Each structure stands twice: as C-alpha cells, then as structure tokens.
Amino acid sequence: MNLSQDDLATLWLTLQLATTVTAILLIVGTPIAWWLARTRSWWKGVVSAVVALPLVLPPTVLGFYLLLAMGPEGAIGQLTQGLGLGTLPFTFWGLVVASVLYSLPFVVQPIQNAMEALGERPLEAAATLRAGPWDRFFTVVVPMARPGFLTAAVLGFAHTVGEFGLVLMIGGNIPGETRVVSVQIYDHVEALDYAHAHGLAAIMVLFSFLVLLGLYGVQRQKGTFGLTYGKNR
Amino acid sequence: MMQYAPVADRDPLPMLLNRWLCLLLTCFLAGTAQGERIDVAVASNFMAPIKELSREFERDSGHNVRLSFGSSGKFYAQIRHGAPFLVFFSADQAKPQALESAGLTVPGSRFTYAIGTLVLWSAKPGFLTNGQERLASGEFNRLALANPRLAPYGVAAIEVLESLKLTAATRPKWVQGENISQTYQFVSTGNADIGFVALSQLQADSSFRDSNGLKASGSSWKVPQTLHRPIRQDAVLLKRGEYSPAARALLEFIRSEKAGAIIVRQGYLLP
Fold first, then answer.
1. Same domain, B122 and B221
2. One domain, residues B198 and B256
3. Residues forming a β-bridge with B68
C-alpha cells in the first residue's frame, strides 16, 4: 500500500481531532445529559431539540452557517476577535468547535438514556448514607452509567473521524491543520488518483472497525454489570 | 391446498401491470411528442450560463434538456461507470480527454465551449485598488484559491502566483476551496480577505446574494490573461448520445453566435 507523507499526516491529524473532540464532548455533554435526565422543567423539550438539531441539518449547510457565524462579522467571530483569538475558520480549533456542535447529540443522548435508566432509588439510598450531591454523582451515577459513557465516547469519536461536509466547508484544506483523512480521500478521488484513495480508505475502514470492535467488546463485559446493577435487580 | 396461492390467481397481476405500463408509456410518449429528452452533465461553474442556454435551446428546438450539476471529477467517475448522460460539459480539458481515450465519447466531438476568466476578489470595497500590489505586500489575512489538484481555476491561480514569483511568500496564507464556489464563499463571508474566483461568479445575479446578507460588491482585480494559461473548458458528445439528433443539436447550438453572446455576457471568453 503506497501512502505518501501527506496521507500519514492526515491520518495523524484526524486522530488528534477525534480524540480532542471526544474528550471535550464528554466534559460538555455530561452536565447537559444529567440536567436533561433529572429536570422536570418546561425547558427540557427546548434544550433536547436544540441538542438534536445537528441531526437534521446537512453537514455542508451547517458548515456554511458556521462559516458565517465564525467569520469576522458573525456573532461567534466577533466574540473570538474580542477575546483576541482571531477568527476560527481554517484553524484546528475551529474544526474542534464545529465538530463538538455536530457530534453533540451522539454523546448527550446515550449518557442521558443511561442516567434516566438509573431511576431515583440508588440516589435516594446514597443520600440516606449521607452522600452529598457531588459524591452521589461521581460515586453512584458515573460508575452506574458507564455503558452510556462508553457508547457516547465511541459514537462521538467515530462520528468525528467520519465527518466530511463540515470540515470541507470551514477547513480550507490546510496540510497539518485542517486537512483530515476524509477530505484527503475525497481529493484523491476527485483528482482521479484512485490508487491512493483506495489505500487510505482501506486503512480508515480497518482502523475504525478495530476501534469500534474493541470498545464494544469492553462495553459488552462491563455493560451487563452496569445495566443489571442499574435496574436494581 | 387452499393456503397456497392458486396458479390461476397470479395471472391478473401481470395483465394489470401490462395495462399500467401501456398507460404509462402513452403518457410518456404524449409528453415528449414534440421533442427528445437530453440528459446533460455540467460542471458547476457553468451553471448560470447553461441554464439560460438550455432555456433558449428548448424554446427553439422543442427538445427537453435535463441538467445535472456537479464536479467534473465526479462526473468523470460516474460516466466511466455507466451514468446515463448524453453530453458532458467539463470544467477542464483533461477529463473529456480521458473519457475520449477510454473510448466513451464520439470521436471528433470534443470542443472548447468557453474560456474562464480569473479575478482576484475581495468583499471589502476599495481593498483591491491595485491587486498585484496587494498580493505582493502580503497585507491580507488569507488568500483563498480553489484546490489546484481538482479545479482548473486553482491551477490558473497557482500559475498567476508563479508568474508574479509570489508562491512561496503567499503559501502560508492559502486556504483552499474544493471548488470555485467554495472559494467564493470563503471570500464572500469575509473569512478570507482576498481570493481567486471566476468572473462568472461575480457576474451572477446580485439580488440573490443581497437577500442572503452577503456582499456582492467589494473590489476586484481582473487578472491579465498573460499571467496564466487559458482556462479552457471542453464539452463532448458521449457514446450514449451518438444516435441522438437532439444531443447533436444542443452541441451545435452551443457553438452558435446566439449562444456565444450569452456565454460572454456571463463572464467567459470564447475560443
């Protein structure tokens, strides 16, 4: 398989992007999922809908509006410029922000479902043992909802690796900064360089399959434990 | 025995289907009685002109032109794998030539239908009073251009930078669009101060862009044709169109004086 230096750089960049995005998504998504799982507020529907919106919009459309919003005259662009960060399009962190928005539902929903499945009882039991709210969250909720977190991490990671339209719109195809694997494969195909495209695509499929296989394997072992415990059997 | 469908009961279905097909065929023939339908693949950059051209052609000939838009690279792959197009308007010469050597075109049918005009454009008014000077000064945040691997306008942009000996100096500021439309968006949204776009894009209907809150005006520098090789766009009659008089008529029309005037008005040159 003939991979050029450029191809390897795109693979490495994609890994960095997906890992960063997954980490941020778990940190940002967990409180949102917790609030959605517990609240009885009228706002629940509104917030759920907003979180799920990226599922509806085609990535290139979402990308176009992000290009507008993150541009020098857009709302996000004004904010980042005000903070002295410049504008986000055509930068690695621009891709991170866009990917976090784009993959949010894939992370929030599994965690929320796992948390809802816990029910009130383990938390009430922990409270009678004088566990404070933070203690309850980290020693009861997080371990018991672990299958949900795993699924969320897998989906967030996979979705970011496979992302294309969004990166295409706000990336600007800069080597080592925004040129990820999916864009590189697309470029090879468009330039009729099918040999390189096949090689890179094969690696991407194989890698993704192995990552998913590994994580689902772990989830199968821990999942039974977590779920049985969660249902208070 | 009765739980199996009796053989006799199966017959009415094909009969019904037959009647249906006859009806469908009648409708179809009635609908196209005046003309033939031509499926045409067109490179996206030629979208505005071909729409106007095919309207004219349909009115004159009574034929029905069905346009598909996309990148020339995708159309090349699709045509190689049996896409039902009769005519192909490429954004370059390479893809029609490659189809020609693969034996998928009608020999001798390839010709240049338009030559693209490259413009350095900024959404900011007054930013490009002297385009060459602005490029050389390096006083801009980013320079947008179409990916030279994929888009002929990108190749031309690189040639301009080479001619001006500014390739190395500007390279750190390049942002590449996958095609000329994306490059245009990078500039029109203000994310890149300047970019190499097609004159035909600036020529397109300005009211459309205003309603989207984008700036149609700005400032521009029409790049001298001496700084790059001409952006020749070739069309070709595909094998599937070999026995279609309508497809041949369309290509004939594109070469007419009337069509030439439309192509020029939309920001292209004629060969």
1. yes
2. no
3. B41
CB-closest option in A73, A90, A190 to B71? A190
User: CA nearest A64 in B: which residue?
Assistant: B185
CATH code: domain of residue A210: 1.10.3720.10
Expressed as residue numbers, the domain containing B108 is 31-115+232-265
Q: Which residue in A has a C-alpha nearest to residue B145's C-alpha?
A: A172
What integer pLDDT is reported at residue B214 of this predicted model? 42
Q: B111: buried, middle or exposed (CB in 10 Å: 19+, 13-18, 0-12)? A: middle
- pTM recorded for the entire structure: 0.79
In a domain, B23, yes or no: no
Strand pairing report for B64-70 and B37-43: parallel
How far, in Å, CA of A128 to CA of A119, rounded? Answer: 16
Residues on chain A touching B186 (C-beta within 8 angstroms): 67, 89, 172
On chain A, the residues whose CB falls within 8 A of the CB of B95 are 192
Pure H helices in A39-74 = 43-52, 59-70
Mutate to test the interface with B, among A6, A62, A65, A68 (most CBs of B within 10 A): A68
Task: Measure B183 CA to nearest chain A CA, in Å.
Answer: 9
Per residue in B162-176, pLDDT (tens digit) is: 999 999 999 999 999
CB contact under 8 A, B77 and A189: yes
- Which residues, other chains included, contact B27 with Cβ-Cβ below 8 Å and sequence gap of 6+? none
Give domain status of residue B69, yes or no: yes
Q: The domain spanning residue B63 has which CATH number?
A: 3.40.190.10
Residues B126, B199 within the same domain: yes
Q: Which phi and psi (to 5°) does residue A208 adopt?
A: -60, -40
What residue of B is the nearest CA neighbor of A179?
B176
Query: Are the CB atoms for B201 and B177 separated by under 8 Å?
Result: no
State the nearest Cα–Cα gap between A25 and chain B, in angstroms. Answer: 26
SS3 B197: strand
Number of domains in chain B: 2
Please tell me whether residues B218 and B180 are part of one structural domain.
yes
Q: Are residues B240 and B159 in the same domain?
A: no
Asked if A90 lies within 8 A of B74 by C-beta distance, the reply is no
Which structural domain, as residue segments, surrounds residue A25?
A: 5-230
What is the domain count for chain A?
A: 1
Q: What is the ipTM of this complex?
A: 0.76
Look at A87-101, A211-225, B94-108 and tell me which has the smallest mean pLDDT: A211-225
Give domain status of residue B25, yes or no.
no
Asked if residue B246 and residue B217 are part of one domain, the reply reads no
Tell me the pLDDT tens digit for each residue of A108-128.
Answer: 999 999 999 988 888 888 889
